[in-house]
Amino acid sequence: MAGALCDGLVEHLLPYGSQPCDARIETALLTLQAWVQGTQGVSEARKASVAAHAAAREALEAKDKWIARAAGHAVATAHMADHAPGAAYYALKALQVLNLDQASIQAEFDWQKSQLPIEIRFLVESTFKTKFARLNLKYPPNKEASSHLLQR
């Protein structure tokens, strides 16, 4: 589930990056899609993640570095779902270096959250509040997520 969500998140970012996109980023996304469909294994996903992070280290522009990091974390969800918040975080970092206003970055975060199943929305928000506070995002009360957790 996390892999499919992260794939959409990174694809949503690609138009902001340099064109053409680094082939390693595209390979990471294709590998993630194949893993979600069950046609690639974790080993291939890990290799694609390492390659995407290498693309990040070699990127000449900050936006491309953060998009590559987002792709690397997205495909890494194949071996550990805990990489999902990293994909979201680096996606937002890419938008920050594009000098988008805080309202646009908040809108992207809100879009990201809207893509999540209600069962994990609260967990993602709590991760962002504790680990990524420097993004200055707003967290309106999510009564739907809170009440879902209380029903358990």
What is the gist of this entry?
By secondary structure, this protein is mainly alpha-helical. The protein is about 70% helix and about 0% strand. The chain has helices at about 1-15, 25-35, 40-60, 60-75, 85-95, 100-115, 120-130, 145-150.
Please give the number of β-strands.
Answer: 0
Mean pLDDT: 82
Low-pLDDT runs of 5+ residues are 145-152
What is the 3D shape?
globular
* Content-based structural category: mainly alpha
Give the helix level as a range of percent: over 70%
Main beta sheet? none
Radius of gyration: 15 Å
Beta percentage is: under 5%
Element order: H for helix, E for strand: HHHHHHHH
**Count of DSSP H/I helices:** 8
- State the separation between the terminal residues, measured CA to CA: 21 Å
Number of domains: 1
Structure explained in plain terms:
- The chain has 152 residues and is mainly alpha-helical.
- It has one domain (2-150).
- It is built from eight helices and no strands.
- It has helices spanning 2-13, 23-37, 42-58, 62-76, 84-97, 102-114, 118-131, 143-150.
- The longest helix has 17 residues, at 42-58.
- It is globular and about 40 Å long.
- The two termini are 21 Å apart.
- Mean pLDDT is 82; it is low at 145-152.
